[in-house]
Amino acid sequence: MDQEVIFAPTLRSECLTMTLYDADCDSQFICDFWNVVAGSNPPWTDDMLCRFMKNTTLSPHNCLGRKPTRPLVYIIHLGSQTGPAIGTINISERNPAIPPDIGYAIHSDYRRRGYAFEAAACVLSYWHNSLGLKDIVAFCHPANTISNKLIQKLGFERGGEATLEIGEVLVNAYVLPGMSVTLTAATRFGRMGVDKVE
């Protein structure tokens, strides 16, 4: 089945256009962007990005039984798809025991303008209504007050906590209303996800 039948190649909101990740065109942008925005340590490389994309691609049980051939990552553009790329938004299946999690990053020059909320609300609606994803979680460092508030504004509720394996960092865990998932400090996930066997 063609990937575009599973994932919309383009999503639009009032001020933004989100374009589906294309490994041939977007890998360098994502590595550079995530290294700058997140200050990643270790820094993202092409090999690491390839591993991340493979490991976190959704399983068929999270895609209405269809098997995606690439990850669910969108580049966020201001205005049209030819407008400046200002961020990324994705849903990642990092651990088969945990529902997929939403992740987003906005360039510092474009923060505090509502773009993260606008992009997240748009893709959450798409993932929920078109892909049938009912169970989505969010993780956030407790010190990131703005992002914690944004996650709650999107309708997530505190669902416990989880441990990010890099640095053994305890993070806030959020779930959508009605989910029966309980997350505890024993719930562990890694930035790279679990290595998937072909």
Task: Summarize this structure briefly.
This protein is of the alpha+beta class and about 200 residues long. It has helices at about 5, 25-40, 45-55, 115-130, 145-155; strands at about 10, 15-20, 70-80, 85-90, 100-105, 135-140, 155-165, 170-175, 190.
Strand content: 25-35%
Q: What is the overall shape?
A: globular
- Please give the domain count: 1
Could you state the order of secondary-structure elements as H and E? HEEHHEEEHEHEEE
Main features:
198 residues; alpha+beta; Aminopeptidase; nine-stranded mixed β-sheet; 5 helices; 28% helix; globular; disordered N terminus; N-acetyltransferase domain-containing protein
Write the layout of secondary structure elements.
Elements (H helix, E strand, L loop, with lengths): L2 H4 L3 E3 L3 E5 L2 H16 L7 H11 L15 E7 L6 E8 L8 E6 L8 H15 L7 E4 L4 H9 L3 E8 L4 E7 L12 E2 L9
Parallel strand pairs: 5-6, 7-9
Antiparallel strand pairs: 1-2, 2-3, 3-4, 4-5, 6-8, 7-8
Organism: Oidiodendron maius (strain Zn)
Protein name: N-acetyltransferase domain-containing protein
InterPro entries: Acyl_CoA_acyltransferase, GNAT_dom, N-acetyltransferase
Describe this structure in words.
Mean pLDDT is 88; it is low at 1-5. Strands 1-2-3-4-5-6-8-7-9 form a 9-stranded mixed beta sheet, with helices on both faces. A hairpin with a 3-residue loop joins β1 and β2. The two termini are 18 Å apart. It has helices at residues 3-6, 23-38, 46-56, 115-129, 145-153, and strands at residues 10-12, 16-20, 72-78, 85-92, 101-106, 137-140, 157-164, 169-175, 188-189. Helices cover 28% and strands 25% of the residues. The chain is built from 5 helices and 9 strands; from the N terminus they run αββααβββαβαβββ. It comes from Oidiodendron maius (strain Zn).
